[in-house]
Amino acid sequence: MAARRNAGGGIGLGLKCGLVTGAVTGVLLAVLTLLATSTLRKATVEAVMDRGFASTLALAAPGADGWFVEQGDKIVTRRGGQARLKDFVDVGAVTAWLTGPQAAQLRLHTADVELPVSPVVLASSGTAECVVGSFGGEAVRVFRAPLVDKGGVPVGKAQVAWLASDFNGAGSLSGLLWLLTIVGALIGVGAGFLASSFYTKPLGDLAQSVSRLNRGNLSYRATHRGNDELGRLSRALEAMCDTLAEGEEAQERLGKIERETELLAELQTAMQPKEVPSTEGFEAVAVQIRGADSGSDLYDAVPLEGGRLALFVASTSARGALGALLAGMTRAYLRSALEHDDDVGAALRSTNRNLAKGMRKGMHVTCQVAVLDPGKSRATVYIAGHRAPFYACRGGEVSVVHGEGLALGLDGGPVFDRRLEEVIVDMPQGTRIVLTTVGTYDFTDEQGADFGVDRFQELVRKQAPKNSEAFLNLVLGALDAQLGDHERQLDATIVTAKRMV
């Protein structure tokens, strides 16, 4: 019983393959037949039309004097006109006739061609035209051209009639082509049925394997080792199972990475101040946009004695969770130092020593610090190895503050302490300072070009006169427009302050 069920299943599959093959073959042959028939019919019509126009124009070419002659007070046909007219009909026309001066006529047959009162012109060529009529009960196409006298005045017509069936000369061949189409489809059914019998059993094995795979069994090994398509399919299925097994492991690792990324985002958000504290006479705001390779940037704002406010941005050499951890350590050390001693230079030196004690070789943190002093209308700037420029904007001009300081964590103390500089930036009313990180401008725009620091500086100069919230919105909007659909890789951090009064 089992053998009969398998055999029946095989026959069913073979019949399906045969029917599909036959259907595809039939469709292809039908399309080719339609194209061939259409092309043949078009060529036949064009050929007969060309011969009809050519014979009619040739018939009219001698003019009325070439076919008719005056005899007394009558117009009669020239001698030999009937034989000459027959030569024109021999090209394939059924009849031809001429009407000359004084209604004189020259006919090949006695039967007349009947034309409608207002015949429809099907086509024209030069002075000739083609209309529909009937001759002896059959439809004809009549080609006619004016017959002129010596002065070029039309005095009659030259006309040639062709059977309308001549324009469908491709009919018999079209029937043969359709017969061949049917035969080809039947042959396709048989060939498909025979060919499928060689693949029924291997396909059944593959179907069972796919069914096991669908239930989660990824231990499949190729059952058909030939070099034909089924052999390659069987080996491909084996490779796919191995890939899926590897994919499950990769999915688990990816899940862990995604959870770590979520935790990293939460940690980075937790390190940011909820808002930038206000200080008299200054308007300060900050923003940070996470990149795909995030966790390396931080910013903070710490109130100091005397109404002063310390703003700082920093970037770590590490990325991901390690970068976030290093950023958190830096923020904690620096805030703690500032809370115990509002001398920013001393706080930076203390932070550097603490980081250098436990920092792995080669790791470091760069930073910019600006201390806003309302009483003196100025900012005191410290730069510790930070590559991104520090901008001071005033009256439509931008100046860049440079510092030779060493990054935090590279040196235990002496070199860092010696190279750390303090730069005073005067901030009369309307002056804006901008602290940022490299990731803000280091990206590829929609045209595939690097956006770069020069274009960012021009953007800062252009928007500097705006209030701080508008400044951030316009700058970020312009950066997003340049970034387009590209993904930002590095964190972008901007901290800015403007002297209002």
Topology:
Layout: H1 2-60, H2 64-67, E1 68-71, E2 74-77, H3 81-89, E3 95-99, E4 105-107, E5 121-125, E6 128-135, E7 138-148, E8 154-163, H4 171-197, H5 200-214, H6 229-271, E9 282-289, E10 297-303, E11 309-316, H7 320-340, H8 344-358, E12 365-373, E13 378-384, E14 390-394, E15 397-401, H9 414-419, E16 423-426, E17 432-436, H10 452-463, H11 468-483, E18 492-499
Antiparallel strand pairs: 1-2, 3-4, 3-8, 5-6, 6-7, 7-8, 9-18, 10-11, 11-12, 12-13, 13-16, 14-15, 14-17, 17-18
Helix pairs in contact: 1-4, 5-6, 6-7, 7-8, 10-11
- Strand arrangement across the biggest beta sheet: 4-3-8-7-6-5
Unreliable segments (pLDDT under 50, ≥5 consecutive)? Answer: 1-10
Helix fraction by DSSP (H/I, runs of at least 4): 40-55%
Distinct helical segment count: 11
Q: What is the N-to-C succession of helices and strands?
A: HHEEHEEEEEEHHHEEEHHEEEEHEEHHE
* Number of DSSP strand runs: 18
Which shape, going by the Cα principal axes? elongated
Distance between the termini: 99 Å
Task: Output mean pLDDT.
Answer: 81
β-sheet strand percentage = 15-25%
Backbone CA Rg? 48 Å
Biggest β-sheet description: 6 strands, antiparallel
Estimated structural class:
alpha+beta
